[in-house]
Amino acid sequence: MKNFSVIGSGVMGRGIAYTAALSGYEVKLHDINETALENAREYIEKEMNKSAERGYVSAEKVETALKSITYTADFEETAKNADVVIEAVLENMDLKIDIFKRLDEQCPPHTLLATNTSTMSPTEIGAQLSRPDKFLAMHFFNPVHKMKLIEIIRGLDTSDETVALAKEVGERLGKQTVEVNEFPGFVTSRMNCLIGNEAMNMLMEGVASAEDIDKALKLGLNHPMGPLELADLVGLDTRLRNMEYLYQTLGEKYRPCPLLIKYVKAGRLGRKSGKGFYNYDKN
């Protein structure tokens, strides 16, 4: 298990690639957008060098890790010889199914295939493949190199061997894992989306400011980040897609807050756009 491929070079994809490279894997990071790939390269190089400067990792390890990452827009090259493939693209079921159908055709028979989805059904995706037993969800958390958890979600046909292998990969990445039986939103996303949505409703209703809502949960409930800060970090468009999916599958209590819908329509997507519930310096 040495060849690790990541599909999608956004926030989660580049974070997974970063972590895999520092864990000793040969990494291929794929994206159809060359600009996105270059942004991912700049981010990974900057963050790794910063970690070396602060003494978290050695300069030699960073040098080796940076050399182990290939940035490519060639899908076939990414799939070829892969031992592990993690997909980290938009939360869109049709897009994910299309990607995994292509991976199914082009990856070696032994490849572990995993989606980084935070809400969607691995059973539904796996059913489209010739090897649903080799497929599951591995839900990483942002920022990947700092967060210790991976949720491992088995689909209906996921084999015990595949779950065990996913746990081994997680351990090599320096993570702890929890095994979850598939249900919309799994464990963490169901809770996060409910808390975040209620925080947005309170902001819309004028209960308190964004700053005070976040401060109350951080200091009163010991959350490491406030729910509105976290939504800005995840991306409000991503959060809205998650809420819409959970609303469709789990019902009324997951109806997206109207303020969230309004912000996404206005292009206020959080950190990545420079403005969400808070304002950010785009640099």
TrEMBL record:
It comes from the Bacteria. The record marks H139 as: Important for catalytic activity. NAD(+) binds at G8, S9, G10, V11, M12, G13, D31, E91, K96, S118, N142, K272. One of its GO terms (molecular function) is NAD+ binding. Residues 5-182 form the 3-hydroxyacyl-CoA dehydrogenase NAD binding domain. InterPro entries: 3-OHacyl-CoA_DH, 3-OHacyl-CoA_DH_NAD-bd, 3HC_DH_C, 6-PGluconate_DH-like_C_sf, 6PGD_dom2, NAD(P)-bd_dom_sf. Residues 185-280 form the 3-hydroxyacyl-CoA dehydrogenase C-terminal domain. SUPFAM superfamilies: 6-phosphogluconate dehydrogenase C-terminal domain-like, NAD(P)-binding Rossmann-fold domains. GO terms for biological process: fatty acid metabolic process. It holds the Pfam family 3HCDH_N. Keywords: NAD, Oxidoreductase. PANTHER family: 3-HYDROXYACYL-COA DEHYDROGENASE FAMILY PROTEIN, 3-HYDROXYBUTYRYL-COA DEHYDROGENASE. Belongs to the 3-hydroxyacyl-CoA dehydrogenase family. This is 3-hydroxyacyl-CoA dehydrogenase. It comes from Planococcus halotolerans.
